[in-house]
């Protein structure tokens, strides 16, 4: 067990190594596979040595069988002791298979499990590095399929290479060498199997690769739709739309069924063509060696020997061809994994300025932003200065650019023109990971994980005292709620906080923000989905949260931002007007019109 854990930890630490292997754009899937096994060649080499020793019965049995037949058919030339010697040899060779097979699997498994953990680690690391835009474009179900199914397919392919392909090639080499030592004429006959196997693979390769790709893409699509369906179950059941969802999933399942069936059919024709071709070859080999024995050119027992080795070669070649679909599936999964590992759309903090302290001053300097492939500007000529400790609220119609401004402050987005300065430094020059340690975000739809309330409040932090937790619980207006729970802060919140109300989840999120003592607060419509009572409690908690901190608020309910230092009214990506609540109401401009609509 300790060895297994150590292997996983080592594999995880190699995540960055596997990322580097993936970045070699010209590397073939086979070269990538070679790269990720670097550092494990000693384990593989020892495993290969044990493979040779454990496979000895396969190579020795035809020789012993031929010897026994030759002794039995010509007793005048051999003594009875020859039978017992051959018997003792084969028994000894067979019995050694138990310890050597265990050793072979032990060293092989160390290498394969190490790479499996390393690949998953590399994917997880890359997913954490990808930009927010990449995550918006990649469905969660598709990503899960890559981390789970595709890595599993690469692991299965690795096992096939080590457990089936390598022994098969070893069998071919040894069987051919022994046969050549007995008869060069028969060994030439064996060589004819090579062009036949190459022809079969060439004939079916493209079809198998295409069908594997189509099937893999359908599985990813299915994974994405199932993930979406699970998220939508409350909405689906609330509107009585269960049958609609079932029909949608059934449609996807029928598509997978069809593509899976066509893949199975191609593989079936491939396997059958392979089996028939080599059985015909084996019959011709039997006829040829029997004819040589009939002419007296070889002993009768050698017919069994050649037939045994030719059967071994054919079985090995058949095995190589049979596992080709599995190899094709593994190589397709490598391509799928590399789609993520090679993605250039990452947040790269290397060599950038680390942020040790934040005052909380921001300046938006003639900022423009448009998304790739679109001529439409989400933000246009936005200029704004925010003082340290100031509370700025953004209001406006949906699509006006409010949340985009917040994403600029977080560093999820960068302007396509202009600059965003934090404490006088262009945010493009900052190590955003170090900057975000001074930042807290409370979104509209809060994300909790299925642990306890305490775990969710202290998420990612160590060394937090009970006194600190109690203080933020009180500041977040959670104390009365927590005291009513039988397990208090150790109460489980359920998946995504499903056991809690929206207001309770928001207050836990505020407590999570408070305990980090951030210098910059982002509140993205934190009360828009709450009832009046919940909103009251959350508002009280927010008042504690924003004291003395630079705060950016997006709100639809204009009454909730009355105490903001300044309100910025957004319209079609531009700033329409700026002022206090009273100033904007007195001006009777855009803000006044928005307020009238909510009365």
From TrEMBL:
Mind telling me which InterPro entries this protein's record contains? AAA+_ATPase, ABC1_TM_dom, ABC1_TM_sf, ABC_transporter-like_ATP-bd, ABC_transporter-like_CS, P-loop_NTPase, Type_1_exporter
The way it spans or sits in the membrane comes to:
Multi-pass membrane protein
Keyword annotations: ATP-binding, Cell membrane, Coiled coil, Membrane, Nucleotide-binding, Transmembrane, Transmembrane helix, Transport
Instruction: Supply the Gene3D superfamilies for this chain.
Output: ABC transporter type 1, transmembrane domain, P-loop containing nucleotide triphosphate hydrolases
Any stretches that span the bilayer, and where are they?
Answer: 41-64, 84-104, 161-178, 184-204, 275-294, 306-324
GO CC list: plasma membrane
Where does the record place the ABC transmembrane type-1 domain? 46-329
The record places domain ABC transporter at: 362-597
Record protein name field: ABC transporter ATP-binding protein
GO molecular function terms noted in the UniProt entry: ABC-type oligopeptide transporter activity; ATP binding; ATP hydrolysis activity
| Localization in the cell | Cell membrane
By its UniProt entry, which CDD domains does this protein fall under? ABC_6TM_exporters
The species this protein belongs to is: Paenibacillus nanensis
Q: Which residues form a coiled coil?
A: 205-232
């Amino acid at each position: 067990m300790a060895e297994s854990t150590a292997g996983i930890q080592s594999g995880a630490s190699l995540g960055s190594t596997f990322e580097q292997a993936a970045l070699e754009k010209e590397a073939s899937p086979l070269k990538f596979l070679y790269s990720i096994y670097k550092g494990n060649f000693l384990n593989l080499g020892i495993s290969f040595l044990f493979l040779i020793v454990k496979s000895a019965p396969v190579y020795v049995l035809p020789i012993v069988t031929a010897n026994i037949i030759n002794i039995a058919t010509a007793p005048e030339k051999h003594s009875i002791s020859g039978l017992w010697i051959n018997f003792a040899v084969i028994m000894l060779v067979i019995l050694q298979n138990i310890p050597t097979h265990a050793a072979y699997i032990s060293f092989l498994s160390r290498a394969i499990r190490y790479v499996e953990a390393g690949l998953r680690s590399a994917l997880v690391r890359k997913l954490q590095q990808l930009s927010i835009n990449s995550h918006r474009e990649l469905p969660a179900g598709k990503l899960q399929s890559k981390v789970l199914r595709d890595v599993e397919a690469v692991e299965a392919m690795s096992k096939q290479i080590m457990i089936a392909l390598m022994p098969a090639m070893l069998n071919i080499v040894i069987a051919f060498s022994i046969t050549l030592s007995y008869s060069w004429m028969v060994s030439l006959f064996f060589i004819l199997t090579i062009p036949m196997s190459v022809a079969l693979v060439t004939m079916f390769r493209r079809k198998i690769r295409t069908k594997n790709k189509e099937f893999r893409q359908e599985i990813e699509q299915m994974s994405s739709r199932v993930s979406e369906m699970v998220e939508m179950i409350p909405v689906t059941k609330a509107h009585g739309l269960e049958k609609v969802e079932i029909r949608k999933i059934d449609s996807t399942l029928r598509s997978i069924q069809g593509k899976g069936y066509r893949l199975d059919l191609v593989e079936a024709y491939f396997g059958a063509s392979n089996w028939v071709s080599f059985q015909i070859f084996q019959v011709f080999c039997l006829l040829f060696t029997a004819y040589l024995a009939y002419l007296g050119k070889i002993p009768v027992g050698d017919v069994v020997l050649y037939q045994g080795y030719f059967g071994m070669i054919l079985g090995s070649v058949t095995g190589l061809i049979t596992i080709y679909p599995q190899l094709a599936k593994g190589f397709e999964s490598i391509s799928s994994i590399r789609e993520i590992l090679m993605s250039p759309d990452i947040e790269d903090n290397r060599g950038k300025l680390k942020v040790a302290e934040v005052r909380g001053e921001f300046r938006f300097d003639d900022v423009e932003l448009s998304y790739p492939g679109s001529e439409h500007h989400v933000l246009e000529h936005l200029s704004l200065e925010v003082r340290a400790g100031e509370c700025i609220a953004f209001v406006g119609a949906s699509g006006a650019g409010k949340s985009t401004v917040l994403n600029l402050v977080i560093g999820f987005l960068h302007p396509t023109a202009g600059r965003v300065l934090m404490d006088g430094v262009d945010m493009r020059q900052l190590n955003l990971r170090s900057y975000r340690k001074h930042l807290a975000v409370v979104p509209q739809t809060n994300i909790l994980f299925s642990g306890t309330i305490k775990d969710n409040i202290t998420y990612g932090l160590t060394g937090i005292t009970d006194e600190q937790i109690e203080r933020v619980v009180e500041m977040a207006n959670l104390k009365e709620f927590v005291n009513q729970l039988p397990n208090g802060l150790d109460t489980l919140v359920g998946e995504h906080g499903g056991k809690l109300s929206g207001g309770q989840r928001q207050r836990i999120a505020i407590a999570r923000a408070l305990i980090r003592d951030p210098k910059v607060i982002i509140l993205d419509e934190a009360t828009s989905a709450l009832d009046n009572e919940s909103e009251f409690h959350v508002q009280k908690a927010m008042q504690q949260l924003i004291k003395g901190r630079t705060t950016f608020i997006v709100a639809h309910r204009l009454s909730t931002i009355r105490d903001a230092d300044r309100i910025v009214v957004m319209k079609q990506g531009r700033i329409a007007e700026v002022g206090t609540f009273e100033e904007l109401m007195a001006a009777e401009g855009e803000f006044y019109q928005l307020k009238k609509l909510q009365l």
